[in-house]
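Fold Annotation — chain and its backbone
Next Lines — sequence and tokenised fold

***
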Amino acid sequence: MAYDMSAEAPRGIFWRTLVGVFQRQRAKEATQIRSYSRLPTVSSYINLYSDSQIEVANINEFAYPIVEFIRTTQPDFVVVNSRTARLFGLCVFMLHRNLYQEPFPTRNHNISFANLSDLSNIPLEDRRKYLQPHIEKMTETVERPRVLILDDQVKDEAVKSLRDLVGTLSGGRVELLFGAAHGPGGDISGQPDHEGVQRWQYNPLANGVRHDGINIERVKGKFKYGLTTDLSLATVLFARDIKDKLRK
């Protein structure tokens, strides 16, 4: 459920224009980060409209409940849907590290990425071929692995379909849990009543990946680097505020 391909981001006037637009937006978000860091930041304390976008400045609000859920359930593996939840998954990983200064509590102390969005759009046999080697690797490591799937939103039909297929391929040995940045449907959601979207949701320059069916291809670009740098700063500030509140 990872990738090892790489590709250069497109160059030219169009690409430079996009980067310029995104860099201006990042400057605006950096200001928001500083203002949000002075507010109470235990999850749900920042008042968001139900349709407000998920931004670098507030994404930790959505990640914090997921981090605490991971601490409680101790999944053996965490797999992030790379198409729509890549930066959210990175935020969960970084927030855990900043809050607890300990290895991420999975078997490999890391997260994995997969393009789960397109599984419903390919033939069943191709789905089997895509999932089987990953399931075998997990069950070779752990007899009955618990696997948390992270996405921006979780749909009931997708949960049932994936659970049925993974259950069949693993002989019932894999337990799947589902976490979402927002919306109902998962075992845990950062903001269950929130209906907004991530501004970078389908943007390969921001996510750092491009998808061709179930294949994931790296996309290099300055915007993705800048966005993850801002995310790292926002996560440090958020974790600091959380720890300050827990000490009071």
About this structure: The chain is about 45% helix and 15% strand.
